């Protein structure tokens, strides 16, 4: 991700300067506005222009040496408990930096404590670590510091992160079994082609001209796999590496989500996941005191599908003009249509945050059921395809053996 240097004015008119990782110059301005700053300029740093520490930070992130999501969630919960117990923020961070967790987490707490000791707000200190603390986290902390509800907001953040991580694990586990079956099928196919079929080919080597086309095809496939095993390994490794890189690209992710949205079996899953994401995040931000425009902007920045993000941009423009969220959503085809009346009721009652969270919880249950159904269909389907493949190989070779035996008799 590109690195930008920026200059901005904070709420008191003080000039701020620093560096931040962002997708574009507009993304930098959006993040600064989210923090309540007025952007002045943002300049992309050329490769190698950053500090050596930045290079080590990137290397460390590639190795996964930074604090994990679960660690940050636990730290947030611990910090909330300490603040509720009457411990000051500075002392709480000092305690967390000495509590014996993993070294990256302890170092992060020590860094935050040092920033606060230098006069920075907690939100400003968190904003300096965008890879660890997302904009939603920073904005909620900023609002909480202003309203004096930091300990309650941190507890809310911890609960929301725990719920999101649990949902992500359920999605991942639902896809793990089918992925394992695909890998196992590839392994079985390679084993049969390199270890089993060659034995039959040697046994029938004297009758090659009398074999049926199916048997010849299988033996030719076996020779091709054995002769190009190293090339196939390189190709598979390249596909895997390319896939990992593509999954870091928002454009590809958006394309993949749109394609999945057109497949009957996964269309509902994509719709449910998008609804849970939008409503739960919006409800959490509004419930923490973040204004509606900033909340929608933060939700927009988290969308991985560019087309969905464009719809949220249109929604933000409508809300700024004085339109209701529910009325603006009605024509965007972003959420299921029967969600709109429920949000409208919440707006009219002044409880949009509560209603959005309820909708998110309802669709989270539906997403769980849809994932269970998808897994129950994919598993047997893949097993059936593997069984048919193996059966075809075996039947074809056995048929060839029987035909040769008939000729000998």
Number of helices: 17
Tell me the strand percentage band. 5-15%
What is the succession of H and E elements? EEHEHHHHHHHHHHHHHHHH
End-to-end C-alpha gap? 71 Å
Backbone shape: elongated
Which spans have pLDDT < 50 for at least 5 consecutive residues?
48-64
Task: Estimate the mean pLDDT confidence.
Answer: 80
Give the fraction of residues assigned to helices.
over 70%
- Assembly type of the chains comes to single chain
- What is the total tally of β strands? 3
- Largest sheet, spatial ordering of strands: 2-1-3
Classify the secondary structure makeup into a structural class.
mainly alpha
Radius of gyration: 28 Å
- What can be said about the biggest beta sheet? 3 strands, antiparallel
In short:
It is found in: Cell inner membrane. The protein has 409 residues and is mainly α. Helix content is 73%, strand content 5%.
Report on this structure.
The protein is mostly helical and 409 residues long. Helix content is 73%, strand content 5%. A 3-stranded antiparallel beta sheet has the order 2-1-3, covered by helices on one side. Strand 1 (3-9) and strand 2 form a beta hairpin. The longest helix is centred in the last third of the chain and has 57 residues, at 352-408. It is elongated. The chain starts with a strand and ends with a helix.
């Amino acid at each position: 991700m590109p690195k930008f240097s920026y200059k901005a004015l904070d709420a008191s008119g003080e000039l701020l300067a620093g560096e931040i990782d962002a997708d574009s110059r507009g993304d930098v301005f959006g993040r600064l506005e989210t923090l309540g700053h007025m952007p002045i300029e943002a300049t992309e740093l050329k490769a190698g222009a950053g500090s050596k520490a930045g290079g080590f930070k990137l290397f460390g992130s590639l190795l996964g040496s930074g604090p994990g999501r679960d660690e940050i969630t636990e730290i947030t919960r611990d910090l909330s408990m300490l603040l509720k117990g009457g411990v000051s923020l500075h002392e709480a961070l000092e305690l967390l930096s000495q509590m014996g967790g993993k070294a990256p987490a302890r170092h992060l707490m020590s860094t935050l404590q040092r920033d606060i000791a230098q006069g920075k707000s907690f939100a400003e200190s968190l904003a300096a670590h965008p890879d660890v603390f997302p904009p939603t986290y920073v904005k909620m902390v900023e609002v909480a510091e202003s309203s004096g509800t930091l300990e309650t907001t941190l507890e809310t953040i911890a609960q929301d992160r725990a719920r999101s991580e649990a949902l992500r694990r359920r999605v991942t586990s639902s896809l793990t079994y089918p992925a394992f079956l695909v890998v196992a099928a590839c392994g079985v196919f390679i084993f049969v082609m390199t270890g089993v079929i060659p034995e039959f080919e040697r046994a029938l080597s004297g009758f090659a001209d009398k074999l049926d086309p199916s048997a010849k095809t299988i033996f030719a496939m076996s020779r091709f796999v054995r002769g190009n095993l190293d090339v196939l390994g390189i190709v598979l490794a390249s596909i895997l590496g390319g896939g990992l890189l593509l999954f870091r690209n928002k454009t590809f992710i958006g394309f993949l989500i749109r394609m999945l949205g057109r497949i009957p079996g996964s269309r509902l899953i994509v719709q449910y996941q998008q609804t849970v994401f939008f409503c739960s995040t919006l409800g959490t931000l509004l419930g923490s005191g973040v204004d509606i425009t900033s909340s929608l902007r933060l939700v927009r920045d988290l969308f991985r599908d560019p087309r969905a993000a464009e719809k949220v941009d249109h929604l933000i423009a409508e809300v700024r003009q004085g339109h209701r969220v529910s009325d603006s959503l009605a024509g965007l085809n972003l959420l299921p249509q029967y969600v709109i009346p429920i949000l409208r009721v919440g707006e009219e009652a002044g409880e949009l945050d509560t209603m959005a969270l309820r909708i998110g919880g309802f669709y989270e249950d539906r997403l769980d059921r849809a994932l269970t159904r998808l897994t129950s269909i994919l598993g047997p389907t893949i097993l059936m395809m593997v069984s048919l493949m193996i059966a075809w190989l075996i039947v074809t070779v056995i048929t060839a053996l029987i035909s040769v035996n008939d000729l000998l008799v």
